[in-house]
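Dear Dr. V.,

Thank you for agreeing to look over these. As mentioned in my earlier message, I'm a first-year student in the group and I'm still getting used to reading structure tokens, so any feedback on how I've presented them would be very welcome. I ran two proteins. I've put each sequence directly above its structure. The first is here:
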Amino acid sequence: MAGGGGLVPGAAGNAVRIVVAGDAKTGKSSLIVTAAAENFLSNVPPVLPPTRLPEDLYPDRVPVTIIDTSSSTENRGKLVEELTRADAVVLTYACDRPETLERLSSYWLPELRRLEIRVPVIVVGCMLDKRGDQQPVSLEQVMSPIMQQFREIETCIECSALNHIQIPEVFYYAQKAVLHPTAPLFDQEQQVLKPRCVRALKRIFILCDHDRDGALSDAELNDFQVKCFNAPLQPSEIVGVKRVVQEKLREGVDDRGLTLTGFLFLHALFIEKGRLETTWTVLRKFGYNNEIRLREDQFTPPIKRYPDQSVELTNEAVEFLRKIFITYDVDCDGALRSAELEDLFSTAPENPFDEAPYAEATEKTALEGLSLDGFISMWALMTLLDPIRSVESLVYIGYGGDPSSAIHVTRRRRLDRKKQQSERTVYQCFVFGPKESGKSALLNSFIGRSFPEEYVATIGDRYAVNVVHQPSGPTKTLVLREIPEDGVKEFLSKKEALSACDVAVFVHDSSREPSWQKATEMLVDVASQGEATGYEVPCLIVAAKDDLDPYLTEIQDSTRVSQDMGIEAPIPLSTKLGDFSNIFHRIVRAAEHPHLSIPETSAGKTRKQYHRIVNRSLVFISVGAAVAVVGMAAYRVYAARKNSSS
């Protein structure tokens, strides 16, 4: 594989911006002038204006803008401003003044970290001509401990502006560090490719392995070369590439061609030899950015939707997921275990299911695997919460269709209520309730977790997702979102808090009156929020811990509230005894009929009554006005006839 350019410029967009900093009189300005003018000038201003190098100076043909800086106290603000805008930083020291080198590790490099300047750093020793033969020094020996401590240093170089030694190389290395950075690709301490780089290269390998035989044939290798570098490989070159790999790594080549192991070895070899541009060219040709993630233009454009619309996977995407589940279920046990799931996501930057809120959100098998239902449910949850990431993850694992064909936006919930039905396949239920009421136990039971003997408070929002198979009707995916008691007030302070909610469930401990009172308060607050914002939701009351004796007036209280607010009577259940009263089917049914079970507060009823009176008055006025108009018209006809007869 040959090297190649054509890479994206630095963060500045049309040029790589390199800021030169360091102690006073370490040769900063002379370094810049000599690079630009290609000869040494004895009279150089203390601080130069921005200097632009021609774009054809270096192979990548990306222009370089060099910013000179002053280390004086009065120019401190300007220095910080320039450093924060840098794509790369060149730190200078004077070769004949060891104290300026020591200042790099005692001041300059820690200062860059303090300012959170996360760009490549090139350390440059200037005025090499002033260091006499009586001061022999090994640059590697001097810089090795500093580079061990400060990994942001890409390279070190010494130069002389007077003798024009290695001046162009300084800014070439700086530009190269921006366009072809080492850090995202290679762990220099371990001397191995970084995991994210391996994952990206594996995905590229699979995309190029058209016959899916686990190796790149000569034809596939040549197609890869043409795609990335716009030039074919000669047969002798292909033989040479495979020979290099096979000599170092026998398993890198087999009778079918270059294996994944060999492909990765080649890239590690390029990087070790300083040819990072080769690997970066490959990555960028396949749409990757400097963070080794696919660029945004590889995915669906931003999704436009109202707050009460949600995003779901299309049938096409679900079918793809079913097929890939079968592909990676190597032991054919109907579940993806940890190793199989990791293999499935081995072409993505990371496994999203390892992160919150997905890691503990769905049902696992006895061997901690994901069933097909659990696998699809997890994707449904990610699509609901983070549709862009869901599409990204689909593309990473091999979804070949148009990314926009993987998802669709549902109808507005407000319109669902008007039409008195919902056609969603994924419903989200918010679970409210006071502490120790049984919210977490409800979520645990939904995903097959055993009843906990000890109470553990939920910190932050928690999700549980599973498939609900209905006796009659299509299968639905239900997402339960637990809202901790401490977070309810803040949650409801947002106008669109209920916009994504299909059903709200209010759980209380039926053996404790204070629990019921708090749950009722939450019900009223949620109902009031819905009435005020237009995001009204069906509500169900759950009387948990039915295995315990109810408090004295529990039945009367719950009956009164449910009747007053116009919703179903509380649903008794006991997660401890496994008696769930079909609660999850009932939640789904409530979501399917979004116009029912919507609670009304006293204030809401008063407003409705007022609007009815106003509407009746308007009808009376309009009827009266119509009668008056008709009467006036009749009078005019009568008057006209009377006049004509006389």
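The second protein is here, in the same arrangement:
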Amino acid sequence: MNETYLYPYSAQEARIRNQLHMWRESYRANVACRNAIEETIRQNFDGMNLKKDCLEPVLAEYGYKRTEWVLATTLQELSWDGRFSRANKQWAARRYIPQDERHNAEITVRSHPAILDGFVDLYRKAYQKLGLFGPEHCVGDRAEQDYIGKVLVLSPDTLKESCWSQENQLWYAHDGFGCSPHAIGRSVRCTCLGDGEMTRWNRDEFVGVLDEKFLPDWAKESLSQFQQEEAAESPSMNNQSM
């Protein structure tokens, strides 16, 4: 699998950050991914139907993140084209792609839009089957929420694809400046509900607070344990302060 880092900024921003080498490597991988998408569509479209397994070799080589980046860029570049479904256009619009007119155009997939639309459908279905949490599983306004004592959803973009699972996405927030929506500090001290690891993430790396109705049973058990431990520690901490 191509392990090249998916660079999230434009060439102009990369120049400012002195990271042009990272941008170039990512750009080359994006172009290669575009070519792979075009080739698999060419090989697997029989004139009427697109084979359902045509997505697999692209994902195997370039992964979900880069494939999504190229597809979302393409649909944003071709947003005027009525041959793409409204649902797929809305899906692509939710993906942040930095403005970079020349280079975005160069990674735009050149397959027939109606056929490519079907390929996007296949990608979205494959991603949905992974069962990952996203903004649609969260409640409240992330920009205004206090995170202390909440179950947070870590963005899949933050995790390596090899670590993609609900167990690695759910974190219980303890404290940190990042728990406050308007603090200058962004660090959140939290514990993974999946394996109990405690670490710090940046507030911006979470997609939001999980809606309780989506909390899995295994996570409820972990959450209850953490809350009991915190409750037990609180009296002793208060006594020490007295």
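From my reading of the second output: The two ends are 58 Å apart (CA to CA). The longest strand covers residues 170-175. Does that match how you would interpret it?

Kind regards,
E.
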